[in-house]
Amino acid sequence: GTISDVQAPQSNKTAYDGLRDVVAGGVSSNMRARGVAAPLVVDSAAGARIRDVEGNELIDANMGYGPHIFGYADRDVTEHVAARFRCGHLTGLPHRLDHEAAELVAELVPGVEQLRFANSGTEALMSAVRLARALTGRTLVLTFGGHYHGWSETLLRTRECDGYRPRPLAPGMIPEAMAHTLQVGWNDAAAVEAVFEEHGGELAAVLCEPVLANAGVVAPAPGFLELLRERTRSSGALLVFDEVITGFRVSRGGAQELYGVVPDLTVLSKVMGGGFPVAAFGGPRQAMKPLAQLEAFHAGVYAGNHAAMAAVAASLAKVRSLPGLYTELEALGAYAEARVHEAAAAAQRTLQVRRVGSVMSVALTSPATGAVDPDGHRRLQIACQGRGVYFHPIPDEPWFLSTAHTRSDIDTIADVLAESLAEVCAE
Ligand code: PMP
Asked: Alpha-carbon distance 256 to 254, whole Å?
């Protein structure tokens, strides 16, 4: 696609200062505020590029936090949704597209037979956890440090714990918010065993990102997902995979297909909707029974609106129709990983790269300690942004590659990284 004409040019700083006056913090998502190291206000986006209000074009490696596996403004998805908007996109009644979208999800995701649609990952996770509690009659949920499951009251927690107890992350959360949430380290099998030993009979669910992608990318250690599967099964708890990032991204059937471990409940969003606000949670029919019988509660005026369903149907039909999609994304990811390492070597620095397919975290490390250097990384990000390459300034946030990124785009990113590293490290 092409990028639309720019309105009257305005500097990013002026635009950002103006909007900060009326939008609290300048953003409608705290995650996004952390993304603004140097002001960048978007005019439009297409393919792998965003255009800012000054008229600069930047190659984007953040890609809206992951939904756009085919790039921005993908015609197949966008046209389908635009057509739905012209036909009335919200009636508050069932639509044939609900069936089409749900069948595609159920066909592609091993653990999903039946589902409900929601508007965001946060909502779908709230509902999945509630469903797990309804099914088990228990309340405790075991989570893992650094895994992000949205900003709801019982899941928005600190990365560090007092024992197994995380703390509410932010002011305004009720102090008891974490009374039913436990947390251990990701890939810490001994800690999982200890929690099951002590609390196995009280656990409603074990909830994880099957590939951690919110604290850099950390794949599950060999056998770790299998351990979670086995312990949940034998203790009567549900295994819940938050595949908001990994679903239709690390393979067609998500991480559960890639690693061959099928959870009881799956939460999906992002790639499923090609950038439109939509999410889903589902499982075997038996697990969805409290909702099928309308005993458990989940609702929403906008949940499963016809435009969102058109987005899911179009995105997943496209995912299904491209046999080589995941081989292509893996090859692109491997190429990017190699080029990023070369760029770092050219500047005599080390970038830590962790990758599963097209999801890749890149973090500047300190030569003295070898640890991630968040301040240096932020300066690197600002320098790259000035040269036309955008990625998130927080090294925890991964890069998301898409079929719209060419080898030549990756080469440009690598060149810009090398130049920016040389500049930042000389400071
Ligand atoms: N789970 C994961 C793994 C996520 O990465 C995110 C968002 N980045 C969420 C849940 C929350 O989704 P949303 O922002 O749509 O509420």
From this structure: 5
